[in-house]
Write a structure and sequence with these properties.
Blueprint (H helix, E strand, L loop, with lengths): L1 E2 L13 E3 L3 E2 H4 L6 E2 L5 E2 L10 H13 L3 E5 L5 H14 L5 E3 L23 E2 L2 E2 L9 E5 L2 E7 L4 H9 L8 H26 L12 H5 L17
Parallel strand pairs: 1-4, 2-6, 3-5, 6-11
Antiparallel strand pairs: 7-10, 8-9, 10-11
Helix pairs in contact: 4-5
Length: 234
């Protein structure tokens, strides 16, 4: 059981990063519970809808614009249909801001691991089932006063990690599980960079000068600020 962060909770304004993804209302209301609580936004049929009051919408705006919060949104591709749920939400909560391409030299690719731009989802199609729509693309985001405040991950790298754990492919397509296993470490590196960016920018929390207690206890004179570049990095 995973508890969703409620927009009305006080803890909502204490969370440096919020993961938002369109899910069906049936997934939220499963008897045994995939999620407990109200989803950030829900999809119903082929027309996703943002199901919150004006007050709740204002709380999300407060979180992103004034509190320095960070929102991560995965999508399954970059076509208009794949992007539609995210675009609907962004138009409602941040209508005055535009979704733009994140430059490949943006610091989000270097906050901890030295990446060469966005990673790529390894499996786009399984038989006749399209998993990711459209060609590979740069990550997209919303910038507020120069700060990346919303990241739309058109490659949904978080699902590479999901897949590596769940092993979703069977039968003739079972070899896809091995591909996900191979890419999972690379996906984890990208997500670590994203989380570190979120907690070192904005005003909700700033861990830019954080030093692990273990390092302090060992009396290390020079604590590294960045991880070395991974030799096997994709």
């Amino acid at each position: 059981m995973v508890d969703a962060v409620q927009i009305t909770d006080a803890a909502f304004f204490e969370s440096p990063i919020i993961f938002m993804e369109p899910i069906s209302s049936s997934a939220v209301n499963l008897k045994n519970g995939l999620l407990k609580g109200k989803a950030i936004w829900q999809t119903k049929g082929s027309r996703p809808s943002f199901g919150y009051t004006d007050r709740e919408t204002q709380r999300i705006r407060e979180y992103v614009v004034n509190r320095g919060g960070f929102i991560y949104m995965p999508t399954h591709g970059n076509t208009e249909a794949a992007m539609q749920p995210a675009l609907r939400v962004l138009r409602q909560i941040l209508p005055e801001y535009h979704l733009t391409t994140i430059p490949q030299d943006h610091e989000i690719y270097n906050t901890f691991f030295e990446l060469n731009g966005p990673l790529r989802f390894p499996v786009r199609k399984m038989g006749s089932t399209i998993l990711h729509h459209g060609p590979y693309s740069q990550l997209k985001g919303v910038f507020i006063d120069g700060r990346l405040a919303v990241l739309v991950d058109t490659e949904a790298m978080i699902h590479v990690m999901d897949g590596a754990v769940q092993k979703p492919f069977f039968g003739h397509y079972q070899d896809r599980n091995k591909i996900l296993d191979e890419f999972a470490p690379a996906a984890a590196r990208q997500l670590i960079n994203i989380v570190i960016y979120a907690v070192t920018h904005g005003s909700i929390s700033d861990y830019s000068n954080y030093i692990p207690e273990a390092a302090l206890a060992d009396g290390e004179a020079d604590v590294p600020q960045k991880a070395p570049k991974a030799a096997d990095q994709l």
